[in-house]
Amino acid sequence: xxxxxxxxxxxxxxxxxxxxxxxxxxxxxxxxxxxxxxxxxxxxxxxxxxxxxxxxxxxxxxxxxxxxxxxxxxxxxxxxxxxxxxxxxxxxxxxxxxxxxxxxxxxxxxxxxxxxxxxxxxxxxxxxxxxxxxxxxxxxxxxxxxxxxxxxxxxxxxxxxxxxxxxxxxxxxxxxxxxxxxxxxxxxxxxxxxxxxxxxxxxxxxxxxxxxxxxxxxxxxxxxxxxxxxxxxxxxxxxxxxxxxxxxxxxxxxxxxxxxxxxxxxxxxxxxxxxxxxx
Length: 279
Fold this sequence. Notes:
By secondary structure, this protein is an alpha+beta fold. The chain has one domain: Ribosomal Protein S5, domain 2, CATH 3.30.230.10. It has eight helices and ten strands. The strands form two sheets. Strands 1, 2, 3, 4, 5 and 6 form a six-stranded mixed sheet that branches. It has a four-stranded antiparallel sheet with strand order 8-9-7-10, with helices on one face.
């Protein structure tokens, strides 16, 4: 069996207060990208998760172990992950891999949503990758209509930026919004995206509150954002906690043309939205 685990793009990320559990309240729009890890699942003598190029235990291995702890009796599996989503780049690659493993047990293990939340804040939304309004620390997910065609150019910047470090820097800088403002923003996002419009139709809402913190830790992100705007991106934003800079374009052809014009060590052009995951 071959399973795809798409990258996750934060079209916006509004930061709220830090909670007692150490996580932050968020308001965000998540959408999947055509860029995806490929996961090959085959029968084996014992469970094994292999991810060439990524050292140590990963979230997919924890997901498989958690399924076994909950009594999943499927035959042992070898799960081999071909990483195409840059690692530690703010694109949810590890969360997507874990969610793909959990999907193997759909209908056989109860309450996969809760199990996903135990594994990580971004995992629940990736059980069914689609455009969604995401609240809380990632556990409150409201699916939205498929957006009109658009595409993205990604500048991963080498990855390797710690999510925890970016949130800690955001706290140090005093970033964040109150609960009333988050509620207002959620309503505006729901209205803007609820009719299936392209995100390019509401650029004023495509804001990432973590950008100042990420820039503080990795100033070159600013150069990547400027390069995307110069290449014609109608919107240039940080994805998640970074360091990936993302430019949005009306279609894949425009994104590919922009990517070719950029002098970057790593640049990725891809379609966005769940309708384009298999294209």
